[in-house]
Amino acid sequence: MIKSVIIDDELHCQETLTLLLKEYCPQVQVLQQCRSAKQGLEAINKLNPQMVFLDIEMPVMNAFEMLEQFNEISFAIIFTTSYDQYAIKAIRFSALDYLLKPIEPNELIRAVTRVQENRHLPDAEQFQMLLKQIHGNTTGFNKVAVPTAEGFELISSDQVLYCEANDNYTHFYLKNKTKIIACRTLKEIEEQLMDFKFFVRVHNSFMVNLNEVTKYVRGEGGYLVMSNNSSISVSRSRKDSLLKFF
User: Fold this and answer.
1) Domain 2-134 - what CATH class?
2) With a threshold of 0.70, does the pTM exceed it?
3) CA 20 to 30 Å from 35, out of 13, 19, 112, 205?
4) Which has the closest alpha carbon to 235: 225, 224, 245?
């Protein structure tokens, strides 16, 4: 069993999540439901949970302020939130997990499964990235947090040639001829990299770094030739939007 704590100031959200976990993720045991960050801090220190479902928007102390109270994070975190574009952007950027309210069962299953399969805790650097994003201290920062089975890797965005979908994983192809397998779908990676304007989705299976494109070859959709001589297919539906960049 995965011992967990739910921290959310809205009672109906606590109850809904508890019911969803009971029905769709029976391997998760809810030890306590907390109505505030202060109660959450006390529960975490007392119960030592393996996983915390943490609402972002709470009165007095929000989720990020609560996390700053810990010297070390010894539990997996799944943020829960109503649509908050700025917070979601920061969470995506640091490669942490979140669920949008109202929570969809399939999304909940996927988030819990990811925690189980990866078997690693968030790294201190991920939280530093997250908090820098939240506090707006990101000047000149161009690295990407790529979640892997072992944890995550920080790579410079300009070192990425292209990304390729592989079911629930994404392969990052780098300039140094290495490949990193990310534990995220290409759609999730696309959302994570949306602020880097030179990354463009050109196909259901591919996203490319436009700075590394050397040639476009016409066709029904055509294809791109990258700086490492790889050929990347362009889907017909994405062809026009791609060509606008050129």
Assistant:
1) alpha beta
2) no
3) 112
4) 224
